[in-house]
Design a protein that fits this description.
Blueprint lengths: L21 H9 L11 H5 L1 H5 L4 H10 L2 H7 L8 H5 L6 H14 L5
The protein binds iron/sulfur cluster (2 copies).
Length: 113
């Protein structure tokens, strides 16, 4: 294997063979634009809920990909569905629809391992 002089921090890496990917697959099946997220954080910077709570939509994105569903359940209802995040997303992701799909997925999918 080629050595680049650095490695990925284990705490930041996502092994898709080991995490529960049911929710992220469901979201991308229904809102394919979400797969183009570059984690720029523009959504988080403008977020109405983030201005008054610790809600962080970019962190939520990572939690979804890590399959941390309990954390997501605790956070998701802080979103007011105002749609500001959609307006600033450089990838044109329908983040409000993503939030709606998260809510629907948490209540309708069997997310057990
Ligand atoms: S603004 Fe769009 S591309 Fe940037 S982190 Fe948010 S969802 Fe992803
Ligand atoms: S729709 Fe939700 S996540 Fe997006 S800016 Fe509004 S409160 Fe934040």
């Amino acid at each position: 294997m080629k050595k680049f002089g650095f490695t990925t921090a284990q705490s930041r890496s996502i092994d898709y063979d080991k995490v529960n990917t049911k929710l992220i697959k469901y979201i991308i099946e229904n809102e394919s634009s979400f797969s183009t997220c570059i984690s720029c954080g523009a959504c988080t910077a403008t977020c109405s809920a983030g201005n008054i709570t610790h809600f962080n939509i970019r962190r939520l994105n990572i939690q979804i990909r890590l399959g941390k569903y309990e954390t997501i359940k605790q956070e998701i209802d802080k979103c007011m569905l105002c749609g500001k995040c959609m307006l600033v997303c450089p990838r044109g992701i329908n983040t409000r629809n993503v939030i709606m799909l998260i809510k629907k997925g948490l209540t309708t999918l069997d997310l057990s391992d």
